[in-house]
Design goal:
The complex is a heterodimer of chains A (511) and B (661).
Chain A (H helix, E strand, L loop, with lengths): L6 H18 L5 H22 L29 H21 L9 H20 L3 H19 L6 H32 L4 H6 L7 H19 L6 H9 L2 H32 L8 H25 L4 H22 L2 H30 L12 H4 L1 H15 L5 H16 L3 H28 L21 H19 L2 H18 L1
Helix pairs in contact in A: 1-2, 1-4, 2-3, 2-4, 3-4, 3-10, 3-13, 3-18, 4-5, 4-10, 5-6, 5-10, 6-8, 6-9, 8-10, 9-10, 9-12, 10-11, 10-12, 10-13, 11-12, 11-17, 12-13, 12-16, 12-17, 13-15, 13-16, 13-18, 13-19, 15-17, 15-18, 16-17, 16-18
Chain B lengths: L12 H16 L7 H27 L5 E10 L10 E9 L1 H24 L6 H20 L3 H19 L6 H33 L6 H4 L11 H5 L5 H17 L8 H4 L5 H10 L1 H16 L3 H24 L3 H21 L3 H29 L10 H4 L1 H15 L5 H17 L6 H26 L17 H16 L7 H8 L12 H22 L14 H61 L4 H30 L3
Classes of the chains: A mainly alpha (511), B mainly alpha (661).
Amino acid sequence: MNLLDFLPELLLLAGALLVFLLDVLGVKRLEVFGGIAAAVTALGELVVIGDLGYAPLHALSTIPASAIDQPLGPTLYAFTSLGLVFQAIFLLTAFLVALASLSRPSHEPGAAVFFGLLLLATLGMLLVAVASDLIFLLLAIEVTSLSTYLLVAYPRKEPRPVEAAMKFFIIGALSTALSFFGASLLFGAYGGTSFYALGAATGYVGYPYLATVGYALLIAGLGFKVTAVPFHAWAVDVYDGAPDDVSAFLAGGSKKMGVFAFFLVFLGPLLLAERMPSALPSGFGPSLQITLGVLAVLTMTVGNLLALRQKEMKRMLAYSSISQAGYMLIGVAVGTGPAIAGATFQVFAHLFMKTGAFLVVGAAASIGVGPLIDDWRGLGNRRPSLGVPFALMLLSLAGIPLTVGFVSKFVLFSAAVQAQGYFVWLAVAGLLNSALSVFYYARVLKVMFLEPSPASAGVGATGSGRFGGIGAGRAGAILLATVAIVALGIYPGPVISGIQLAATHFLQIGA
Amino acid sequence: MTGLSFALDYAWLVPLSTLVAFVIVGLAGNRLKRLEWGGWVAVAGAFVAMVVGLLVAAAEMMGPGTYTDQSFTWLSVPGSPGTFPNGVNLVMGVLVDPLSALMLIVVTVVGFLVMLYSIGYMHHDRGLPRYYAELSLFLTAMNGLVLSDNLLEFFLFWELVGVCSYFLIGFYYEKPSAASAAKEAFLVTRVGDVLFLLGIFLYFATFATSGPGAGWAASGFKFANGTQPFLAGISGGNSTTLTIAGLLMLAGAAGKSAQFPLHVWLPDAMEGPTTVSALIHAATMVAAGVYLLAVTSIFLGFTATDQLAIVAIGGFTCFFAATMAVVNTDIKRVIAYSTISQLGYMVLAVGAGVTMVGMYHLFTHAFFKALLFLAAGSVIHAVGTQDLRKMGGLWKKLPITGLAFLFGALSLSGFPFTSGFLSKDDILGSVLAATSAHPLYWPFFLLALLTVFLTAYYIFRAFFLAFGGPAPRDPALPEAHEGPWVMRLPLIVLSALALGAGWLAFYPPFASLLAGGGVPPSFSATDLALSAVSFGLVLGGIGLAYALFGNGRMVEVPAGSAADRVRSVLLNRYYFKAGYDWIGLRAVYGFSRAADFVERYVIDGTIRGIERAFARGSDQLRKVQTGIVSDYAAYVIGGLVGFLLLLLVVAPWIVAHLGGS
């Protein structure tokens, strides 16, 4: 094992330790902690992009190309290009959040806790992306989970975040228990927990139904992470109660980790069902796909329905993010190369749209806009610098052409159509849900652009200080997300083909 | 090749420059200190577009037949066994070939002149930034359409020009008639658009998924650079699917180019500003339908059945619309009917297999028709009315406008040695030549020939009514005066083009553009006798118009001043119009009311019902979101049990009984 293979992870760890150390030493300036967090995530991002084979950054890459996408073995971790793509997504999310958080008040209490935990949570996510063993995966998820529970509660003096953190923790602990129980049943059935063992049934000892129960437990346990319905109920309270930047991180980052965990865990039995049908109950492969399809449809539909009548902006975004998780699960249920690529691209797109949207909400709050959607009346005309990016993010979430959200849905749904059979209905459900979602996104647009500002909007309406009182870091993060939404909407080609290649390799290494 | 060929690589600058103008005027137009400044930004954008457009066209002329395609893949679906064996690529690109170069000249030159003219004409209007922004967006979309290198991109811009047309017809949206005209135009062309889209689907389903054309979808539906029409080549030039798809293309073209029976929207579209009528509803957008037919015939291919249908629609429309122009008293509507009629000539030519002859007429028509509209606009600007019966005696007060209108009228009627004469006689000659192989074309040729007479009559009737006589018939009209230079200059330039643009066909490099489609216009083949006959018809038309309306006369039916026979013909025309109005009022309006009913109660009702159902569902679901952690834990456990049952019992049952996926 070459320790340098884990350079991004080590960078994050060092960054987190440095932040905590400086805090103990009495450096109480948010800019320092935020600067460290932004720097290590940015550097890590460059390293990962270099590892992915992007030539100009090749000098930074540490993992030899020969070590990526190797056939699966009974190991704890393995580097796959799809995993590296997810690492890039996680690091970019953390970077955007860190950048935006730099604009918070300089002497905010708990700043070190926030940035340190942000780095540790991201570290856990990076480890998820290289896992090749179920226990390793679950432990990596725990690293992130524990960090995020604390992250939600870091403004310790306020009751709402603390309450949210408690709910998050209790449901999270329950889910972890279910996941590990599922893992132990799988160990019982296959005599190992590496994905190699699960996919090839190397140590098969009988009891195929043991595996079925194990996978059902994992659906529930991991469903918590991706906010799949009905394991989603915590998400809204938590996204709503957490500080805005933490919500941005949760929606943009830790949910995506769950999607990748779904890829890792549920592609194995599909392979096994083809390779050695006797090691599973008969018809298990299609059954699992139907089950995951139901999970996807349930998630997108319930999420959209709940969002439909929401009056609070953050809760609306939280529900919309549940429905987006439903779209991503389509990729898991279909399980073909194009579908995995589509779901991955959807994850990538969601990073900009949803993380960006929560960052805008944070910016709006910082200039005195209230939590209700009605408080946003006339904001588009009053503050186009916030209104236009937010409008683009919502249009992208709704899947309107020339935004990245359209492209990602197009790629994902066309993959489901291509797979034919039941999967066509997943695409249909996705399309109907997209149509439904336009209702509530359009309502926000109408409120922002067509309705007059409330009389009380005088406070901070014109903004004071540089960047209209939003702060350079946050303005930069919002700008970055907006540019990405439009640029990838117009010219997504290279990114898509890169992801498609990664997805193809990902399927090959299990085979 | 010459030093100009580099311009071919910069064709994308044409739509881009007007797009920049659109963005500037659209975002900042209301903040400029003086609203006209937005207008000058738009003029500058259109000017850059014209310069680049002309350079591109010149480069294409210097390298005859060059096919320059720059494109990038927007979205791609990789091939896999199943529906799309070769995958699908959605491509955005810019294609310069003789056909698009020819169109580029028309759109950019007329676009710039109209934009300049607008500075003077729209001077008094409110909402100027909106006007210039929308007009710039229109030019972007129109140039994008002209330069499209594939069918889907073509359709995208086709829809965008439709939307711009809707906005601009409804520019005076406070006026109910303008708002409803905008809606009508949008809906009627929409009928064509839907059929056009169906045609694309049909091409896709038949030629793009399997068989020898399977690579077409993978290449992004590109307009192929070949020696024969791509799909006709695949299908051997004759297949039912190809015929139906061709008819659907024709339907799309009929909507955009206001051909029978989708012609109804164009006269009402005159509710928009006259500049909009000149640019969109005379020179460019309405020609897009003809352009679609031309593109289809050159790149994709029509069958013989399609061609007969196209000839029939074109020939009938050109006569049918002319009859309606004969009696109208609104100066803009007379010209609008004449536009429909002239578009009918072009459709006729494309149908008869002489595509480039039709394009040649499109080219000349754009200039003389824009001229007529701008001259009419100058008249309206001066006297404040569109009613021909109130005008009169404007020749002395508006000499430049009068002369411009005269030149436009001469060219429109096909008076010898004007542009219109060259292109129209070319159409008549080629269609006559085609009748020997296709006797079924005969009736439509005769209709087209007869239209020559009508055209000369109605346009000179309008001319004599507006400019003839000593003084306005309505004394209440304000004292007329010519507009500012920004209005006069486009009139002068367009006058020159209206008379002379057709002669460019004798300039070999330009002729190479027309030859690019494979069937060059053939002047030598023009039958002298035919020209003589058509000249006779022109003279007859002008003479009759003079007899009835010259020198300030105005023959009102049933006045007895003219010969009985002529009067009865006129009367018949009135019956025709009455019948047409009756159809419009009863059938179309009845249909609209039925549609309105369906829209209001059935569709709206359904949508409201669905909305309410979703809202209720949403409210019910929200009760689940209690905020109590133990409830949430119960959902997790309940979900676990549910999914376990699904995975263990339900899904295996589905797989066993209904088959796996």
